[in-house]
Write a structure and sequence with these properties.
Helix content is 38%, strand content 14%. The protein has 149 residues and is α+β, with helices and mostly antiparallel strands. β3 and β4 form a beta hairpin. The protein is globular and about 45 Å long. It starts with a strand and ends with a helix.
């Protein structure tokens, strides 16, 4: 049995410890905000935080996550400054990639509270958006950086 600490709560998982974390979050614990995208760590839809660092949950097994602090989009309060900025800038279109985008942006703002546009583009480059809302994402991150200060 593997014990996981997710969003401040402890969960137990009894099946295959080599299962990708994204599936366990979604299918076993009902945390469906983390999305399944490409399955090979390229798109960023499944981005979560592990010990404060943005990680692709499709590339991490349950056993690798044991004993670490896991934060998913559900762990951010509804009034979190990033979520507010996202909605104020009307970022979501289909919305599928947005949880991963927000989790990646959170790491950026935690490490660089006042990023330049170049910093944002470099940090967010690895998260894909089929709808192409990249300019809105950039504006939302800039707005969130001002909200956080």
């Amino acid at each position: 049995m593997v014990q996981l600490k997710i969003n401040g709560k402890t969960y137990s998982y009894r099946d295959d410890p080599d299962t990708p974390l994204v599936w366990v979050l979604r299918e076993h614990f009902g945390l469906t905000g983390t999305k399944w995208g490409c399955g090979v760590g390229l798109c960023g839809c499944c981005t979560i935080h592990i010990d404060g660092k943005a990680e692709r949950s499709c590339q991490i097994s349950v056993k690798e996550a044991e004993g670490k602090e896991i934060l998913t989009i559900e762990g951010l309060p509804q009034d979190h400054y990033l979520k507010r900025a996202w909605f104020e800038e009307e970022v979501p279109e289909c919305g599928y990639c947005q949880p991963g985008q927000i989790m990646r942006a959170l790491e950026l703002l935690n490490t660089n509270p006042n990023p330049s546009e170049k910093d944002i583009l470099e940090a967010m480059d690895s998260n894909l958006c089929r709808c192409g809302t990249y300019n809105r994402i950039k504006r939302a991150i800039l707005k969130a950086s001002r909200m956080k200060s």
